[in-house]
Design brief:
Layout (H helix, E strand, L loop, with lengths): L2 E5 L1 H10 L6 H10 L4 E4 L10 H10 L3 E6 L3 H10 L3 E4 L19 H13 L3 E6 L3 H9 L4 E5 L1 H6 L4 H18 L2 E5 L7 H7 L3 E6 L1 H10 L1 H11 L5
This protein binds 1-deoxy-D-xylulose-5-phosphate (DXP) and the ligand NCC(=O)COP(=O)(O)O.
1-deoxy-D-xylulose-5-phosphate binds next to loops.
Length: 240
């Protein structure tokens, strides 16, 4: 079964709006796990607009499932990840002023840099995942730099899904097959939701993990966090 990692960035966004500790990010991470999440994802950004670097250190003390730290690997990020030693680091090429992540790596152009990063994190026993578009050449490039996994950037899938599900998923199926042929493990994320997740999971072979934040936390406003996590988990169960 594909595993669900809950991205708690948006909890930190709400907390930061008032400067105090409500909602309590650490308690929410503990509760997400209690409600069935199989991982916790955070994406510290240089401006700390949601997840703060201190949050990552605090979360390391309590997360008992898979801890996944995503981000643009600048010096501060590299130092943080190497200090925390999460189960997984996901390398994302987003600009500091980007509203959210908006593209995968060009794994061919940035091959030398990515190879260095993969080696750096693997040295500390941290699994490395590289965020890529659903493009077979980029998957091949990711393999060439030695990563363990890739994460497919699913925003284009989510955008096209309401109008043409088959067209939306086609390049993702090809990229997933390519990853499998090359021996790469597969994650996916960005804008996955209750609307589009089940179909994606049914169609994408060998999917190990999805990380979901924005839609899941928004749904929790209506359904509650525990129910919402269970609803997402049900989308990931395959009928046999
Ligand atoms: C890497 C990725 O796909 C993003 O979804 C990211 O983790 C979300 O970041 P924000 O919560 O800052 O939009
Ligand atoms: N890696 C994707 C992620 O963690 C969450 O993305 P989103 O669901 O907030 O778009």
């Amino acid at each position: 079964m594909t595993r669900l990692s809950v991205n708690i960035n948006k909890i930190a966004t709400i907390r930061n709006a008032r400067g105090g500790n409500n909602p309590n990010l650490v308690q929410i991470a503990i509760d997400c796990e209690r409600f069935g999440a199989q991982g916790i994802t955070v994406h510290p950004r240089p401006d700390e607009r949601h997840i703060r670097y201190q949050d990552v250190l605090d979360l390391k003390e309590v997360v008992t499932t898979e801890f996944n730290i995503e981000g643009n690997p600048d010096e501060r990020f590299i130092e943080l990840v190497k200090r925390v030693r999460p189960e997984q680091v996901t390398l994302v090429p987003d600009a500091p002023d980007a509203i959210t992540s908006n593209a995968g790596w060009d794994t061919i152009r940035h091959a030398d840099h990515l190879r260095y990063l993969v080696d750096t994190f693997k040295e500390d026993g941290i699994r490395v995942s590289i965020f890529v578009d659903a493009n077979e050449r980029m998957v091949e490039g990711a393999k060439a730099v030695g990563t363990d996994r890739i994460e497919l950037y699913t925003e284009p899938y989510a955008t096209q899904y309401p109008t043409d599900q088959e067209a939306a998923v086609a390049s993702f199926v090809r990229a997933a097959q390519k990853a499998h042929e090359l021996g790469l493990e597969l994650n996916a994320g960005h804008d996955l939701s209750l609307e589009n997740l089940r179909f994606f999971n049914e169609r994408i072979p060998y999917l190990k993990e999805v990380s979901i934040g924005h839609a899941l936390i928004s749904d929790a406003l209506y359904f509650g966090l525990e129910n919402t996590i269970q609803m997402y988990l049900r989308c990931l169960v395959q009928d046999s």
